[in-house]
Amino acid sequence: MRHGMVNRKLGRTAGHRAALFRNQLASLIDKERIITTLPKAKELRPQIEKLVTLGKNDNVHARRQAARVVADDSLIAKLFGTIGPRFAERQGGYTRIVKLGPRRGDAAEMAILEFVGYEIATEAAAAPAETKKAAKKAAPAKETKAKEAPAEDEEKPKKKTASKKAAPKKEAAADKPKKAAPKKKKSE
Which of 41, 98, 163, 166 could be disulfide-bonded to 112 (CB atoms 3.0-4.6 Å)? Predict the structure, then answer.
């Protein structure tokens, strides 16, 4: 009979499997998106859905039940503070699985497990924001340097620095001991 054979064993002992899922749940709560194999993602999905359901009802009992699975207090605070309220109106289906295709090394089917509504911060949007901030910070610095630069030029002449390529070769040659010529055997 096949009673109670619902879940995948994933080639691990029960303790190893539980630890694996605890670590993946913690990573998913922290990053809100993980890349793993498809069978692991399918096994992890019901567990994270139950935790998000607990996170929607913020009370001591629910926090203690969640703390049994995820031991980090900051992750529990995030679960009950941001993730649970985000899905307050949703009745289920808090996560999605996106298939990625086979992994190059062993051809294991890979997948992304992420919360619904997860937005990837695009590099194109992030890069202009950073350059604007850098430009604002750099502009006042350039102005102050420009004001100070003429006074420094009048006082001190600029010194030429030695090339960087020449210095390491000389130091490297000085640091290495010279090899002695091989001694010849005396024959009598």
Answer: 98
Distances in Å between the Cα of 114 and the Cα atoms of 53, 75, 111 are 16, 16, 10
The answer for 126, left when phi > 0, alpha when psi is -120 to 50, beta otherwise, is alpha
By the 8 A CB rule, do 45 and 54 touch? no
Which of 83, 23, 99, 14 is CA-nearest to residue 50?
83
User: Is 100 in contact with 35 (CB distance < 8 Å)?
Assistant: yes
Q: Which CATH number does 14-115 carry?
A: 3.90.1030.10
Q: Give tens-digit pLDDT for 34-50.
A: 999 999 999 999 999 99
Model confidence, pTM: 0.63
How far is Cα 55 from Cα 86, in angstroms, rounded to an integer? 10
Asked whether the CA dihedral 35, 68, 9, 42 is positive or negative, the reply is negative
Q: Residue 49 has what pLDDT?
A: 96
